[in-house]
Prior knowledge:
This protein has 308 residues and is of the alpha/beta class. The protein is 44% helix and 8% strand.
Amino acid sequence: xxxxxxxSTLPAVLSPVLTPFKADGNxxxxxxxxxxxxxxxxxxxxxxxxxxxxANSMSAPQKMGTLTALIEGGLNPAHMMPGTGxxxxxxxxxxxxxxxxxxxxxxxxxxxxxYKDVTDDGLFAYFSEVIQKVGDAxxxxxxxNIPPVTKINLSLSLLERLTKEYPKTVVGMKDSSGxxxxxxxxxxxxxxxxxxVYAGSEVFLMRTLRAxxxxxxxxxxxxxxxxxxxxxxxxxxxxxxxxxAALDKVRSxxxxxxxxxxxxxxxxHYSNDPEWLRVRPxxxxxxxxxxxxxxxxxxxxxxxxxxx
Length: 308
């Protein structure tokens, strides 16, 4: 049976946008707006408040206030998938309602990640209660699977149960498991009914697209947006595998460092704005030596961030 889903306005590539912070630890909404508009100009949507946004170092009010400021600043909510998952159902409901009221095209929802060894029934009850309390037909949930961080595995049977119970609400997922066989099995099982699967890294971009997935929501879309979006738009062309290898090369440089601090180093450098270096504890900036090493490696591969 094919379910008639709301047509998605979301791009095939989204970035979990890095969050610039002020000296007092609050998000800098104006600096973030500028960054989001740069990503948009490069064909990349905004999955703000994702892992690389340091979302779980921010409160729900900080995130909701920032989202309002971005949309009032002219960002297109049809290209936005804010992260709204939290360990508290109340916080998740509040952030999700807020995103839906601002007409965001979808929300990216972590499972409740504090308790470990939880059952499928418990996870189903969490998502079900959130959906019922939000109570809005416009809600589009993309489940966020990131077991290396959450230590929670989202089983195929749980995903199938959620999509059968809420076919017009649970419409897709971001899979950051790093396990291609799992990603592929989700696509095979659920994509035929319209479920939209995004890989959690552009390393899996070509495999995801060829298998029937949508695209990727990737950390390094923060720094290499145009190349990732361009390959996604032209993935059937003959040189696609060479272009995938070029994306992997950039990714591999950043992967040698703590990714968030490393990408913030690049943004600070290429935008000539040292305030971008700030991260929230417990994360730390790269040392001066690490920053110099990263920038040297980027220079060696002729990396740049034009228009930043």
